[in-house]
Amino acid sequence: MVFPPLREELRGLEPYGAPQLDVPVQLNVNENPYGPSPACVADIAEAVSRAAATLNRYPDREFVELRAGLAAYLTRDTVAAGFGIEPAQVWAANGSNEVMLQLLQAFGGPGRTAVSFAPTYSMYPEYARDTSTRWVQGHRAEDFSIDLDAARELVRAERPSVVLLPSPNNPTGTALPPAAITLLCEAVGDHGVVVVDEAYGEFRRSGTPSALELLPVHRNLVVTRTMSKAFAGAGLRLGYLAADPAICDAIRVVRLPYHLSAVTQATALAALRHTDELLGQVDALRAERDRTVVWLREQGLEVADTDANFALFGRFADRRAVWQGLLDRGVLIREVGPDGWLRVSIGTPEEMTAFREALVEVRRES
Ligand code: PMP
Predict the structure, then answer these.
(1) Which residue's C-alpha comes closest to atom 1 of ligand 1?
(2) pTM exceeds cut of 0.90
(3) Whose CA is nearest to atom 5 of ligand 1?
(4) Per-residue pLDDT tens for 33-42?
(5) I want to staple 92 with a disulfide (CB 3.0 to 4.6 A). Which of 47, 218, 240, 274 is the partner?
(6) How many CB atoms lie within 10 A of CB 18?
C-alpha cells in the first residue's frame, strides 16, 4: 500500500494555485490593486475587536445579519428590474470557491454529472473530482463564445445536475448573453442547477446585464459573487450566492456548522458599510482594462473581448518564454488558458505602464 493511503484518483496530483512570488508588479490572480482606506481599516479593526470579545462563543451559524447586508447589496443590481433580493435567497462561505464546492456537495456526487465549457476556470473540474461528480467538458468557439445549439445538445445528452457558467469567463473575460442563460436553464430543467459564476460581475461593460435579473424567471438558477475582486477583499475570503430559498436550504444540509467565523462575519459586514468606497475604483479599472486591450491590439496581438479585470492575449509560439521574460523584469502575470495565450490582471496605471514597457522589451529581444 502506498503511504499516505490517498484516494486513488488523487494520487500524484499537485495542489492548485498560482505561484505566489514577491515581485514589484503582481498582475497574476485578478486582485483589485487598490487596498482599503484608513477609515475602512479602522472600521474593520473595531468590528473585529468587538467580535474578539465573544470568541468563546460559536458565531451565528445562519449569519443572518451578513445575509441581509449581502441581499441589500445585490438588490442594487435588480431594483431597476422591479424586484429585490431577500436574505433567505442568499448564502455565503469562505470565498466563492467554497460556495461552489458546497453546491457540488449538495447537487453533485456519485452518479451525477457536472458540465462546463472550456477554456474556463480550472477549479471547476477540481470541485467535481473532490465530490466524486462525473465531469463533462463542453467546448467554446474560436472567439470563446458558447455555441448554444451544441450546448443544448450536450445538456440533453448528459443530463447534468450542475452546469457551471462563469460570466465573465476566466481566463477569457467573455460574458454570457442573457439568452444563453435562459436557454441553458430551460434545457437543464428540474434535473439540475445552472450556476452563473459572476466573480467578475461588477467589472462587466455597461449594457451587459447581470444574471441576477433572471432569478424570478428560473428557479434552477444560482448566481455566485465574491468580495475578492471588485470589492477589493481577496484576503477576506467571502463568497456568496443568490438563488431560490429552497437552494439555500439544501446547502445548509451539507455545510459545516459555523463555517463562517465571527471574525469573517464582522469583517465582511464592516466592509459592506464601505461598499461605495471599496467599489470606487471599478470604473477606473474598467477604463484601464479597455486601454490595455486597445494597446495590446495595437501591438499586433490578439486579445479576447473582456468584461472582467483581466485580459487574455497572445498568441505566442513560446508563451513560457514571454512569461519568464516579464517576470525577470519584475512583472508577474499568469500562464493560463489555451496554448499560446497569457493573462494579465488590470493593475494601477503605474503597474500597467511597467507591464507595457516590459512586454515591449521582451518582444524586442525574442
Ligand atoms: N470563480 C472564478 C471565475 C474565479 O476566477 C475565481 C478566483 N480566481 C473564483 C471563482 C474564486 O474566487 P474566491 O474563492 O476568491 O471568491
Answers:
(1) 199
(2) yes
(3) 170
(4) 999 999 999 9
(5) 240
(6) 14
